[in-house]
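User: For my dataset I need records formatted as: sequence, then structure tokens, nothing else. Please produce one.
Assistant:
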Amino acid sequence: MSRKCQLTGRKANNGFAVSHSHRRSHKLQNANLQWKRVWWPEGNRWVKLRISTKAIKTLQKKGLHAMAKEAGINLNKF
């Protein structure tokens, strides 16, 4: 499975690690992904998703059904 949020699509960002002497080397800034069991009232069951912590905060505000609809995800597959 790729390191990508299943609801928002967040993924790694390319950046530079800059030393004191200002030598730059490439580094990958990964998204903070967590496995989360979320109650889905429409399906009357738990759904296990790998989502970013930012998506968890948004999920509490919007709800699972609204976020899945925006992302175009069918929750029956999870």
